[in-house]
Amino acid sequence: MQTSREPDTGLRTRLVDVGVELVAREGVQALTLREIARRAGVSHGAPRRYFPTHLELLSAIARRGFDELGRRATAAVGDGTASPRAQLGALARVYMEFALDNRGMYELMSRHELLESGHLGLRDTSLPLFGRLVDLVGRVRPDADARLLAGSLWAGLHGIAQLWGWGSLQLATGADDFVPLLRSVLEAHLGPEDG
After folding, report:
1. How does pLDDT run across 65-102, given as a tens digit for each residue?
2. 18-74: per-residue pLDDT in tens?
3. Are the beta carbons of 25 and 39 closer than 8 angstroms?
4. The model scores a pTM over 0.70
5. What's the chain's Rg over C-alpha atoms?
């Protein structure tokens, strides 16, 4: 039996579920505490019992996105026996597909004020993805500062994802497929692909 002092983990989960659905349908701007509470069927003050700040609720919603992207990334690289370059290509494609298929979540995950909030645990979810990128970049380019190069590569991928999502790259390049752009950004950062 639950006492009044024990948290209702079901409601906590439901609030996050509602937030995930809301960001998918209506974007980041729709993620207000009041709207999430309304759609969860609770009073507008109820989320505060589980998420003392709006930032903590947004962080919990973003964590779901990072978890999903992490699962996709793990599936894309498989057992890790492919070359580091091939694994980077697979990660780039997964990143792009996630960004385009989950525009609202992708925007939320890119919010600096959430990523900066280490005490919320979001870094524990987001940094391993970047760590995987750094590791692979270091294996492809042992001569370079892998962390800086991975950051630059990530920025390039993020730019492609944003500009493609807005339709800007298609207009500017005449491209109808983002894959050649991914190959180009990988080559620009890692050098030409062998064989």
Report:
1. 999 999 999 999 989 899 999 999 999 999 999 999 99
2. 999 999 999 999 999 999 999 999 998 889 888 888 888 998 999 999 999 999 999
3. no
4. yes
5. 19
**Are the CB atoms for 104 and 27 separated by under 8 Å?**
yes
CB 67 within 8 A of CB 125: yes
Give the Cα separation of 114 and 110 in Å (integer). 8
In contact, 108 and 62? CB cutoff 8 Å: yes
CB 35 within 8 A of CB 120: no
Q: What is the DSSP letter of 131?
A: H
- Tokens coding 25: 């349908």
Tokens 């694994």, located at residue? 87
CB-CB contact of 85 with 140 (8 Å): yes
Task: Provide DSSP, 98-141.
Answer: HHHH-HHHHHHHT-HHHHT-GGGTHHHHHHHHHHHHHHHHHHH-
